[in-house]
Design a protein that fits this description.
heterodimer; A: 216 residues; mainly alpha; MetI-like fold; 8 helices; B: D-Maltodextrin-Binding Protein, domain 2; D-Maltodextrin-Binding Protein, domain 2; 2 domains; ten-stranded mixed sheet; two-stranded antiparallel ribbon
Amino acid sequence: MNFSVMLQLLGNGMLMSISIFLLTLVFSLPLGMVVAFGRMSKNTIIRGIVKFYISVMRGTPLMLQLILVYFGPHFLFGVALSSNYRFIATIIGFSLNYAAYFAEIYRGGIESMPKGQYEAAEVLGFDKFQTFFKIILPQVVKRVLPAMTNETITLVKDTSLASAISMVELFDVASQIAASKSTIMPIMVAGLFYYVFNFIVAFIMEKIEKRLSYYK
Amino acid sequence: MKKFLGLLLAGAMVMGTLAGCSNDSSSAASGSDSSVAKKEGENFTVGFDAEFPPYGYMDDKGEYVGFDLDLAEEVCKRNGWNLVKQPIDWNSKDMELNSGTIDCIWNGFTIQGREDSYTWSVPYVDNSQVFVSKKDAGIATPADLAGKVVGVQKDSSALAALEEDAKDLAATFSDMIQYSDYNTAFMDLEAGAIDAVAMDIGVAAYQLNNRGDAYVIMEERLASEQYGIGFKKGNDALKDQVEKTLLEMVSDGTFTKIAEKYSDFGMTDSVCLGK
């Protein structure tokens, strides 16, 4: 196998990793917001359920959650699975897990808003809905960005866990080439791929942070 | 509050529909009946460990090839099936097979010790488990392994042998380390962290072919066994179809021809059909 073929194969694996990454963000970012609201709900039952959800998602390995989401429908409910479900299960597993982490980051941001912001909004005649979306949320976004960058970068690397349910993503492709060529080199190259991708992610997040620091 | 509750419900519904879709597509794919014959034009999904050369691995062009996959390809061609090569995590092979995401495990799959767990085809390869070590380590007999660290693949038949029939030998090792793939075990051997790897002879031959002559395969075998194609327990209909085609391939010489493609790794010696 020459180097360019290897790069092309790793590139295909990278595409799979990137699609897991992007789809997970698409689902978990809004879902995290819903979970954060549930976590801050005044209703004790909702709050209790959401707290339990977060503690399970954070307290068990993502790899185990992926296996459960993928094989669970069959072994718990007897549904015959098709291989197409592999990708869907990966996205569900990642989204559920990351929503829990994002929710706690959002909550930290929302709860850090000074009470004065709400009082000022009330004086100005904003209703609850307007207060949250026009005054609180924009400030929360700015505050949580560094923590979100952290979590997003972790997500890029976590995509390699999808190989537990036989998703052929970047790391899996690298191991397969490594096995057929009896060398460790493809894994090193995969590392470079991850690094470059994360470098781009960090760069974009930094740009967004700069753009949002309009009061400084 | 109501709005939030609404959002929460909406979220739950989205997840529900997602799960729903997948369930629909899956129930259509393979019924829960355990014995299902395949018709022309259907998919035949082979589960294999893509890190198990020469039986299943990635070739120079990035295609999945190998002795077993080539056989599967020919079986599918003759039956008009659509071959789907599904690389699997070896640790999850039973879950994959039982949940119906793969139709069979065809990948240097040892029958001995697993007789009752699967519906097996006829054996097609005589395999041995061997020890591989560095040439200069001076490990020539099992007795030389006393006090050494030995690597083995998780849930492999080498491991089964070391845990049962060769239990006494394993007791002399200073440690036994389980790897999820042989390449990592070999890297550890090369780096000097372990002294020997217990593995299938075909895979050992492939590794030695790639890595040059710094390694040796021990004369004395750890265990002898046979490979078969493993189907979900009770799926005799599919097993019969595949086996019939496989035997046809043996009698018209195609089987031997495919084995010759992999003769560098000793396949022509180890096949037990068509001789």
